[in-house]
Specification:
The protein is an alpha/beta fold and 402 residues long. The protein is built from twelve helices and 16 strands. Helix 1 packs across helix 5 and helix 1 packs antiparallel against helix 12. The longest helix has 21 residues.
Length: 402
């Protein structure tokens, strides 16, 4: 474990005294309704973040979007840096929950854990990154510029934010995405001081198939109809059969619907399909196979069309991302925290940044769990160490990355 330099000590000590402020900002964010499709709510949460940045001396730019929430870019310049590429702190403020959820389940702390919609995924990550940026604004010590990008629609595949994320990644030297870290199996943070970050993620493609048949009276003219539901039903096991667990590829038909009335041969049907894969080369092959199954009729007189609703790219390991992980692991060790890296089937915006060739490390936020459920929680005592670890890793990455 390396000793802290005077600059590192100054920044991390500043953060050590900010727990109450972090909890207060987290409470405000969690209690601000921000489901992905609620533009007004997501923008209100964005204004909470932007206001904090402005109060702490960062330059704020709002990237507008007419349908989804606006992106918030906050920059801390460093004109003296030889390399003007910033370190990018990435995060999203939208949640999966319906409108009104913070009123039904406001931010609360029970024992050592905080609860509320988005408390772990990932409003606390936004809070930690914001305080890390504030620490550098107050204390200096960063060898490069800093860019913090807070997006609005990650939970639905980042339809508006993806180009903003990719553009930010192309201008950056490395990326820390503050999705929640996890407790290794069988451990407790208060006792074991361990966490798991994410070194690799699957890519995901979210598709919708629309099936068209021919209606007919199911009693009087049965033979004149062509059932879209039957066509879909025959194809479901074929789609599911594309799953290859050894290769890390899964196909799931997660939603279905269709029909007109019980006594009508179904003129229409639909399903939604989730594809997960490990490497970029698997993506086109699997989408091609799914398209062929969907669009090849199984029932005479039917047709179908497949469309892509959204997708994430995989976070693939590289030597550069491995070096970034080692930088983070060493930073955590300075605060007595053990870190291990895991691969997960879940998707995140970090796949977009990695695909731009920018070294990326994901899940460097505080420790939490049960995301997307009413039991979602955050380990409160992990907030300050997570912020200190991130700050130290950013400083060292800024100094080391060429």
């Amino acid at each position: 474990m390396s000793a802290l330099s005077p600059e590192e000590q100054k920044v991390t000590e500043w953060l050590a005294n900010r727990k109450e402020g972090m909890v207060a900002l987290l409470r405000e964010l969690v209690d601000t309704d921000s489901g992905s499709y609620d533009k007004a709510g997501v923008d209100a949460a964005g204004e909470v973040v932007a206001r904090f940045h402005r109060a702490n001396g960062l330059d704020v730019e709002i990237v507008p979007d007419s349908r989804f929430g606006d992106a918030v870019r906050a920059r801390l310049p460093n004109p003296a840096a030889n390399d003007q590429r910033p370190v990018l702190l990435l995060g999203h403020r939208d949640t999966v929950f319906p409108q009104g959820e913070p009123t039904r389940r406001p931010f609360t702390i029970k024992g050592s854990r905080a609860y509320g919609p988005g408390v772990a995924d990932m409003k606390s990550g936004v809070v930690i990154s914001a305080f890390v940026a504030a620490a550098f604004a107050e204390c200096g010590g960063l060898a490069s510029p800093l860019l913090m990008l807070t997006t609005s629609d990650e939970e639905i595949g980042s339809p508006s934010s993806r180009p903003v994320i990719e553009a930010a990644a192309r201008e950056s030297r490395c990326v820390f995405n503050a999705e929640p870290s996890r407790l290794p199996a069988g451990t407790e943070f208060a006792r074991d001081h361990r966490q798991s970050v994410t070194s690799g993620r699957k890519g995901g493609v979210f598709m919708r198939a629309e099936f068209t048949g021919k209606p007919a009276h199911s009693g009087a003219n049965y033979e004149k109809g062509a059932s879209a539901i039957v066509d879909l039903g025959i194809k479901i096991p074929k789609l599911q059969g594309l799953t290859d667990l050894e290769k890390g590829v899964t196909v799931n038909v997660g939603l279905i619907g269709g029909g007109q009335t019980v006594n009508t041969i179904a003129p229409s049907a639909w399903c939604e399909i989730d594809l997960r894969y490990v490497t970029a080369v698997q993506r086109d092959e699997m989408v091609g196979k799914i398209t062929a199954i969907v669009e090849t009729p199984e029932v005479a007189g039917t047709s179908a069309v497949l469309s892509i609703k959204g997708e994430f790219l995989p976070l693939e390991r590289s030597s550069e991302s491995a070096a970034l992980y080692e930088t983070y692991r060493e930073a955590a060790a300075a605060f007595g925290i053990g870190v291990n890296a895991e691969f997960t089937g879940g998707c995140a915006d970090s796949g977009f940044t990695a695909a731009q060739g920018t070294p990326t490390l994901c899940s460097v936020g505080r420790i939490g769990g049960m995301a997307h459920t009413p039991d979602e929680f955050l380990e409160v005592e992990s907030i300050v160490p997570a912020a200190q670890t991130l700050a130290l890793a950013v400083m060292r990455a800024a100094a080391r990355v060429e």
